[in-house]
Protein: Probable septum site-determining protein MinC
Organism: Desulfosalsimonas propionicica
Amino acid sequence: MTIQQPPVKLKGVGDSLWITMDASLPAETLKQELCKPFERLRHLAVNARVVLDPGESQADDALIEDLGAFLQQRFQVGRVSGPPKAKITPAADGQKAADSGRNAQNAWLHHSDDTLVIAGRVRSGQKVEARKHLVILGDLNPGAEAIAGGDIIILGSLLGTAAAGQPANENAIVLGLDLRPTQIQIAGYVAAGTSSSSGKKPEFASLKDNQIVMADYLKDNIFKRLAWPEIR
């Protein structure tokens, strides 16, 4: 039994929409197939970055440009491009398979996203916002506010207000070397006046059974459960 692959597949990669397509099909057929997932996305596709990946099939720049112009006009997406060009280096025949696997495993090292890293103390009355993850190399003072679409990591004392996973990322965490926040929010859940255990040590807050809970990061690191590094 032969399983027929769909001509167009869509998935989210970082802050982009990655489209894998069969470039051997006529352009008009591909446009019809592209409409199916983008009609479901509707407003979520507006201004989104799109990568058109022909996979193992061949696609010239003219086809990418044609489909990109179609998506921009029809669904108001942002920049449209082909996949990044892979660098080809000579390798002995016996090493090609191993090198290919190693490169795939280390692909996460080359991922770029909207993480914001700042250094210094965030003072009372100041607010720092990040589209995705937020890292502060310093303290978040009482009266200061940190907001992120993903994780918030404070390499210092977290004494202010932290809102991670905004608006609806329930997998986000808030981590601090000294976690004594005025208020913590993860997605739509809020915990006020959470107190740290005695002694300064790395702790993190996460969602469990629809409640924000705190744990010792060194003892209960949730990322130890992952079989392989993942992009957050």
Q: What stands out?
A: Residues 86-94, 96-112 have pLDDT under 50 and may be disordered.
